[in-house]
Structure formats: structure tokens, C-alpha cells
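Q: Is it fine to ask for two folds in a single conversation?
A: Yes, each is treated on its own. Send the first.
Q: Here.
A: Result:
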Amino acid sequence: MMEFTQQNETARRVAVHYAERLDNVLATSVLTGGRTIDSFSDAVEFTNFFWTMTDLAVEDHENDIEVIGGGNLEFWMEKLMNIFIGYLKESGFYQAWVDESNRLNG
């Protein structure tokens, strides 16, 4: 299960915000503890979600759109990157993260 410390609760809320905004059932379920990543294809989809979320967060930041009570969105996105990488590594799908991130970001 993907776990968030109390310190990282804002990061989880930011990620859930974007998962719901994108209507991403897998991401919403993983982020709220309803399921785990248990296949390479899920890991690829979850990685795709992260990068799509990042693109939206950049747009929101550039357009001065407040997300989850404001604060430093860039800070929380960097936290989320570390959390996602750690989670996928612990789940045995780090290579899916690397491959898909490289594919998406060239």
C-alpha cells in the first residue's frame, strides 16, 4: 500500500486532486489506499499519471491557480516524485518508472 506520513499529507491531497481531476481510477485508488500497484502495466499507467499530473501542476502554477489551499506546489510535486519513485521501487516496478519516464521525457 502507498503510505504517506503526516508530513506528506498535503502531497497526498495534491496527488488525489489531480487523480480526480483526470478521472484516473487507478491513481485515485492507489493514493487513497484502495489498491496497490501489482503489475508492470499498472506501474506504467501510474508513471504516466505522475507526468500528466506534473504537466497540469505546471499549468496551474503558471496561471496562478491555487491547489489544495495554496502553498508551494513545486515543493509538493518534488516530494511526490520521490514518493512515487520510492513506492514503485519497493513494489518491484522501478524499471517501469525509468523506462516510461525516459520514453515520455526523452
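Q: Second one now.
A: Result:
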Amino acid sequence: MKCDIKIKYDDSPASNTTNVILIQVTVDNRIFEDILDIHEFFKSLLIEGVYEYFTCSCGVFGCGGFYTKIEHTDDSYVLKNLYTPEEEFSEEDILESFVSQINWENIISVAEVIIDSLTEYFKNNIGVDLSVGVVGKLINNDTVMRFKDSYDEVKALRSNKKHL
């Protein structure tokens, strides 16, 4: 399956020193209605688990969004199921059952596009942070460096697995 993203930057109605980043995810022509939580995405590249993967465009998980289970295989990064955005995750709160297997090359490419876009943003917008959604988690240069570290680590891991 193929994963694509659209990145949009916008002024924040909540702050003069923070702008908003909205990332829309499409997997095999399916457009997910809520935005990608970039922090959760980069954590999920290295560690399988259940993540607050999609969030409301306001940035508050629970207002909207979905938990998604992330699994790793040798060949694929796997999105599995959408769960309601309750305060605590429960397998019983499944909204939709699905499995999307995205090859590692594609998901690593998506991570690279996000990092390149954020790097360019901060080069051109000195002193202006970003939030995921209007009032969501903040992103600054330090955050981008942590995302880059995760990207570099997963890229090295996947490159080593190819050669085994």
C-alpha cells in the first residue's frame, strides 16, 4: 500500500508566536479525516504500540482523532484499526477494523518529507514555533532534531535488515 501526505501551514488564531501545521494522510486513496500527530508518528517508527496517531485539527486528542495500532514487520509499517479517542485506550473501543501495510521505504520517505518541510519552515520563520493543530503539541527546532534522530535510527535499522 502507498502512503502520501499533504502538509499545510497556517496562522494560529491562538498565538502570534506560533503557527499551525496540519498533515493529512492518504493510504491507498483513503484520506483520513483527522490530522497526523507528528510526535506520535515519529515515536511509532521505532516502537510498536497504540498511538494517538490522528488528532482533531484543533490539536486536542479527544475532541476528535483516533487511536491507531502500529505494528512492524520486516517489510512493512502496519497501521491497524481505528479506536475512539477515549481518555484511556481500550481494545473494546474499536471504530473501524482495517489493516494497511506500508513498505518501509515509503514510510521512511514520508518521514523525510516531514523533516525537510519542518527544516525549511524553521529556516524561514525564525522565532515562530509550530503546533500540531491550533492548540496542540508544540514543535520547535529541538523537536525537529529529535524527529531527525528517530528518522536516522529507523533508516539505519531498516537498511541493516535489508542486508541480512
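Q: Anything structural to flag on that second result?
A: Two points. The chain has one domain: 3-159. The two ends are 24 Å apart (CA to CA).
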